Amino acid sequence: MPEKHIYRIFISSCKRLLEEERRILSDCILNSGNLPLMMEVNFDGSNSTYSLEIDKSKIDQSDCVIFILSYLYGEKIHDKIDKCEKCPLFSKKDSIANCMKCCMNDQNICSLSFTEFEYEYAKQLKKPMIVIFNKKYNSSKSFEEKNELYIKANTENESCVDAFYSKRDNNVRFVSNTAKRHAYPYTNREEFIGCCLSSIQCAQEIISELEVKENKSCGLIPYAYYSGLKQTETEIRDKLLFLQKYSVEMVFDSQKSALDALSIAPDIYFGSDGSISPIRVLAIRGISFIETGRDWREFILDDKYKNCNKVPVEFVLSSEKNTQLIIDRSNAFKEYDENTDTFIENYKNDIDKVHIAIKRYKQKHQCDLYLYNNIKPPFRMVFIGMYLYLSFFLRDKQAMKSPVFKIRDSSSLYRVCEDYYNSVKESSTLF
Q1: What is the pLDDT of residues 265-298, one digit of tens each?
Q2: Are residues 304 and 414 in the same domain?
Q3: Distance separating alpha carbons of residues 285 and 400, to the nearest angstrom
Q4: Can you tell me the distance from the alpha carbon of 158 to that of 161, in angstroms, rounded to the nearest whole number?
Q5: Which residue among 221, 256, 279 closes a domain?
Q6: 81 neighbors 53 (Cβ within 8 angstroms)
Q7: The model's pTM
Q8: Which of 220, 257, 310, 400 is the one with CA 20 to 30 A from 22?
């Protein structure tokens, strides 16, 4: 099921003279499959409740804000709220055109309209904002025509003449400063509907870009998708538990993490039947297994963890004649060593060093070394006790920085890897 986010779009505007516009925009948002948020639809209190906290929470919950700006600046906050909460715009007060610096008086009243407050608050939160504005917002003639229709539509409607002229300068400053980027102008109903459709499309694009840019998820998802997602998560979890129980017991982010865990594990050389299990190693050079103080050596060649037990060791490693493999490793490590000839020479010297060290170890211990000439194994395998430590030769990482899979000998994956190990060994020559 494809994921379809439902974006929450807050509609901000003066309510008077814009009731039809708000309804049209709300319907367009719903038709687009998204969710409109409006102050008049308030589930936190009565619809006549005015609160900056409710106002802020609506914007906090939204993914985008669309403003409808027209003739009226709107109710100033101090006309509806006797005493405001602490203003969240205090630090930005000097850059807000209509701010009267409420902090300078004892009454703590706010001279901004609710709409301008919502604009500044959304901007402070860096919410995507889109503006639909009436191109004739400053026209007295156009306003008076609209006002007459408004009064005739409902005899209870009061004239907006005083609201228009008394706050005209505030509205001009607000609209002219706001209707710039992502702004859609209209003059009639048909144009307004077009602006609604364009603004919603713009909102979805902006939010989608924001999700990618900031690597976050916006909006809501339908319950049907959520239910399917939960089912998928359950299936994945069950598969991981199955792998953990029957195949991969642990995944380490590096060889060091695997070795740290191995160093505190008890009886690491004993197999499932309780007997000493031979150590088997499939690698390319094998330098990590023979140098003192390096990586695997204390578990493979040293007696540090063996408790006087004799533990047979078997190596299956590359020969210095495996030219193509060495060239491939050189290409993989160009980032670390740009001189190919030097890298190849050092690589071959390391191979010789390993062979000599194993030959010396073999004089006093049960140990075999097999060399392969034409094989390019994609894995490093270390069989110790009842576990296989499997890592991949990643092209852009050193072997010691590659992740390690700890696999129990009772799993089918272990047996597949063991078959692969034996096939490489059979194609190799005893040194």
Answers
A1: 889 999 888 899 899 999 888 888 888 666 899 9
A2: yes
A3: 13
A4: 9
A5: 221
A6: no
A7: 0.54
A8: 220
